[in-house]
Design brief:
This protein is 39% helix and 19% strand. By secondary structure, the protein is of the alpha/beta class. The chain binds ligand AR6. Ligand AR6 binds next to strand 2 and helix 1.
Length: 171
């Protein structure tokens, strides 16, 4: 069974154990996918994230999914792209691996990621896709309880990049 699936669309529509949110350090909502998730989940999500005291870049915290079809939301904070010499690659890999770790620790089996940091945070899309795919494949080698990971691309450009990169990675 393929453990990685590619999808183009709106991550808030997915009925999975958890969707990952590309949040900011405040965890109090924002634009992009973060705004869409907060709007779709409703006010209770904001109430829960208020109690979490934010999140450092590369780390991840879990909340309920409230009005979303997904049971949980794993909020992670990707790095802002500053040219590539500020540990951006490592921090983006951490955002993926810590989200996977949180999901695994909670016994979750299905997880969906947006293209973290590739919107307003400006991370180059090809580089981000390589990091996302290799981090997930690496995680699968060491842990078995996560059954499926969806990469959810909102835009056609990211979808095309993921199609190519997944082939290259043999995933
Ligand atoms: N479903 C899936 N992907 C989406 C959706 C959606 N509904 N909406 C947008 N995307 P961004 P970042 C894609 O900017 O770069 C927020 O304000 C989008 O096309 O949401 O990590 C936070 O509060 C892009 O490919 O996140 C932070 O301040 C990807 O999601 C900041 O943006 C990520 O774009 C985080 O910036």
């Amino acid at each position: 069974m393929e453990k990685i699936e590619l999808l183009q669309g709106d991550i808030t529509q997915l009925k999975v154990d958890a969707i990952v949110n590309a949040a900011n350090k405040s965890l109090l909502g924002g634009g992009g996918v973060d705004g869409a998730i907060h709007r779709a989940a409703g006010q209770e999500l904001l109430e829960e994230t208020r109690s979490l005291n934010g999140c450092r870049t590369g780390e991840a915290k879990i909340t309920g999914g409230y009005q979303l079809p997904a049971k949980y939301v794993i909020h992670t904070v990707g790095p802002v792209w500053k040219g590539g010499n500020k540990k951006e690659a490592e921090l983006l890999a951490n955002a993926y691996s810590n989200s996977l770790r949180v999901a695994s620790r909670h016994g979750l089996q299905t997880l969906a990621f947006p293209n973290i940091s590739t919107g307003v945070y400006g991370f180059p899309k090809e580089k981000a896709a390589d990091i996302a795919i290799s981090t997930v494949l690496d995680f699968f080698k060491r842990h078995s309880n996560i059954q499926k990971v969806w990469f959810v691309c909102f835009d056609q450009e990211n979808y095309g990049i993921y199609e190519k990169k997944l082939r290259e990675h043999g995933a």
